[in-house]
Amino acid sequence: GIGGAANAGAHAAALRALAAKGYASERDLFACREALRTLRDGGPEAMTAFVAAYEEDDDDAWRNSPLRNLAFLMAEIVGSASGVPLRRKAVELATDVYAPALQRDPDLARLLAAVAAKHGLAPPRPAAPANPLAAMLGNMMQA
Question: Which of 91, 95, 114 is nearest to 41 (CA)?
């Protein structure tokens, strides 16, 4: 992201200027991407400040966007005092619910994964086999 809570107004103005160069249908996507970048880099407070500044001059389209809901859902999950397993499950559910948007835009999917990873909420990786020969044979059998 290009800003934080301290300069949310300038951050929002920069996004509006960039979004104006694209298609109107992409503005929600641009705003969501930047909200998630801000969440990743600055946390929930910075994201909330950015979105509030962005909404000062925006129409209601963004306020009613499912992508706005995704950004705020992720901010709630990241800022929650719940334990990691519950928050990790919430990220998994959000990913499932928003799968169509995430499949259409790989950058959005990567940002969502980066937010989860930054806050220790990425799904655990499957354990590698202890025996390297077993791993090699397993890979050969899958091919």
Answer: 114
Angstrom distance (rounded) from CA 107 to CA 33? 8
**What is the rounded distance in angstroms from the CA atom of residue 125 to the CA atom of residue 73?**
24
Place of tokens 């929650």: 80
- pLDDT band of 2, cuts 50, 70, 90: very low
DSSP string over 51-77: HHHHHHT--HHHHT-HHHHHHHHHHHH
Query: For the whole model, what pTM was predicted?
Result: 0.73
Give the helix ranges, DSSP H, for the chain. 8-19, 27-42, 44-56, 60-63, 66-79, 84-97, 99-104, 106-118, 132-142
Q: Please give the Cα distance from 88 to 50 (Å, whole number).
A: 25
All structural domains of the chain with their residue ranges:
8-124
